[in-house]
Amino acid sequence: MNHPPIKLVIDEPSPGSFVWTLLETDASGAPHKVVKAAEYGADTYEGALASGTRALDAALHKAEATRRDKVAN
């Protein structure tokens, strides 16, 4: 699978509320663009991690499908 480098970050902006963010990174791993972010906080770190991981998987598959469409056309 060929896709842009994306980092999943989990933050706790307020006590007991965990949010995930997907960040596109450059070659050195420095974030430069938000790909997608949680619409609401999760009650646990593990819940945010699971939701963020699902979003990351979807973003990577979408990027791969877009790349394949470009190659086919």
Task: Name a few traits of the molecule.
73 residues; alpha+beta; three-stranded antiparallel β-sheet; 1 helix
Topology overview:
Blueprint: E1 6-14, E2 17-25, E3 31-37, H1 45-72
Antiparallel strand pairs: 1-2, 2-3
The SSE string, one letter per element, is EEEH
Beta-strand portion reads 25-35%
Task: Give the overall pLDDT as a whole number.
Answer: 89
- Compute the number of structural domains: 1
Strands ordered across the widest β-sheet: 1-2-3
List unreliable stretches of 5+ residues: none
**What share of residues is helical?**
25-40%
By helix and strand content, what is the structural category? alpha+beta
Number of helices: 1
Based on Cα principal axes, name the global outline. Answer: elongated
Radius of gyration computed on alpha carbons:
14 Å
Largest sheet: 3 strands, antiparallel
* DSSP E strands, number: 3
Word description of this protein:
With 73 residues, the chain is an alpha+beta fold. The chain has one domain (6-72). Helix content is 38%, strand content 34%. It has one helix and three strands. The protein has a three-stranded antiparallel β-sheet, covered by helices on one side. The longest helix is centred in the last third of the chain and has 28 residues, at 45-72. It is elongated. The mean pLDDT is 89.
